Amino acid sequence: FQPKLLAGKRVLMTAGPTFEALDPVRGLTNLSSGKMGFALARACAEAGAEVTLVSGPVSQPTPAGVTRVDVKSALQMREAVLNHVSTSDIFIGVAAVADYRPVETAADKIKKTGETLTVEFTRNPDILAEVAALPAAPFSVGFAAESRDLDNYAQGKLSAKKLKLVVGNLVQDGMGGDTNQVVLFDAAGRHPLPLASKDEVARGIVSHISKLLS
Ligand code: PMT
């Protein structure tokens, strides 16, 4: 691993889950631990990049040299990303952003009344698609977390969101643990990486990004 593959590059990233509040004490989230995103932020910083990491609620320590912006919801994540995107060369979306948020967040704790509770959800904006569609879009990299049919869905995301690279992983391989097995999808095809620690996988992704950039 060559340490300075991204020297002089400004990398903006998202990591972790989002938390979509239902009331002051409850909300919708997912099992992303932030480990993959934080490992990638660390690998980018070690490769010489200036890294800004927009993170959902996680309990990961901030990697050395990385500027961290903490957010909770998808809307806050979008705002933080849009605030930093114009000064970024590369955008990497590792966050597991909630696709939907409650239409309303109750000001007070929801009380136990009926036998059932119905909550209406509305679509969240797709941060990655929005960034990749900007007129001066950075080199945009997405992740795809699937429970099956990884190749189809990941390749679909590559073309639908006009990305340079999609890192595909199965949820059962990548979410929560310390290791991951990913397949990289780009215009040239599919490139599987071996099962490894998230730090090693992150270095493999950095090395592939630097190859695509040069
Ligand atoms: O955090 P860990 O426990 O280490 O787990 C790592 C991981 C499994 C979360 C990670 O490797 C991963 O796959 N992240 C992407 C998870 C995901 O939500 O994928 P998706 O297929 O729903 O989204 C596709 C891409 O669009 C992602 O780059 C995502 O960040 C982005 N997106 C999705 C929805 C949305 N509203 N805005 C987005 O930017």
From TrEMBL:
Binding residues for CTP: D99, K109, P125, D126, I127, L128, F143, K157, K161
GO molecular function: phosphopantothenate--cysteine ligase activity; phosphopantothenoylcysteine decarboxylase activity
Cofactor binding mode and count: Binds 1 FMN per subunit.
Pathway linked to the protein: Cofactor biosynthesis; coenzyme A biosynthesis; CoA from (R)-pantothenate: step 2/5; Cofactor biosynthesis; coenzyme A biosynthesis; CoA from (R)-pantothenate: step 3/5
EC number: 4.1.1.36, 6.3.2.5
Residue ranges, annotated region (Phosphopantothenate--cysteine ligase): 11-214
Regions annotated as coiled coil: none
Protein name in UniProt: Coenzyme A biosynthesis bifunctional protein CoaBC
